[in-house]
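Forum: Protein Structure Q&A
Topic: Joint prediction for protein chains with partners

I've read a bunch of threads here and the consensus seems to be that you should model interacting components together rather than docking separate models afterwards. I'd like to see that in practice. Below is the full input, 300 residues plus whatever partners are listed. Could one of the regulars post the assembled result?
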Amino acid sequence: MRRFIAAATLAVALAQPALGHEGGRHVKGVVKALEAQRLVVTDLTGQDVPFTVTPSTKFVRGEKGISWREVRPGERVVVHGELEGASLSAAVVMVAAPRRE
Amino acid sequence: MRRWWCAGVVPAAVLGALAPLGLVLWGGFSARPEPPALEARLARRLRELAIPAAIRDAPNPLQATPRVLAAGLDHFADHCAGCHANDGSGATPLGRQLYPRAPDLRGPATQGLSDGALFYAIENGVRYTGMPGWGGAGKPEESWKLVAFIRHLPDLSAEEEARMRRLNPRGPEAWRELQDEEEFLGGGAPAPAPAHVHH
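Posted by a regular:
Agreed with the consensus. Here's the joint model:
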């Protein structure tokens, strides 16, 4: 019985690190290319980061929801992506509000 | 007659009682695999049976007015989104590691529950899952507001989700990251070289 309790305690302890795994990534950059199912962002280091765009991807400019068609290449974005297997899926794409000159 | 009991019924009852223990020992304590469909269905059914009928059949006493939904949204963003995500999908690092996984609250399995069943789960939690019981503070109306907001989740707008992101609890590092992101979007940090941009 003691062995069983020890094994159970060990199993519970070993299971803890799994909670620490993060499954997402935030990317700041400019839009390089955008299609219905694909977004490529050039990040601050100059690297291109591809995202999958899904029907549940939300595009927001300021506090307002927008369509992906309203986003232009060259615009500043912050993308909250989620790892889906080996690729990043865009959950939220925040687009810079138009600047007043 | 007593022989039949000894030979058949008693061993079957003992086996039935030990089966869950056997499942645990066989499957281990890992929370990583998806719960088997049979286990999920049984657990769901047992949960439904465990909710007192008087509460299960109770309708939400609050109307889903803008004020009630706004209060539910604030509360959900602060207390629930860590596991359930702002949009109720359950797609968060915590929600995806729980056993069972945090459910998609927009789906039929949750939306098909009665108002009372949702209220009961919020107030009392769900044993053997990651869902804590939030009741006991003497404020049942807060849970009813959450019920109204959960009903609204399938129609959550991008504006509402943006508001929730600002209300999500976060540590100092995450606050800094949020400020960095807003500064960047406001044009306050250098953008990458435009040479990479093509139309």
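The interface with chain A takes residues 28-32, 87, 89, 91, 93-94, 96-97, 157-159, 161-163, 165, 177, 180-181, 184-187, 189-194, 196-199 of chain B (CB under 8 Å).
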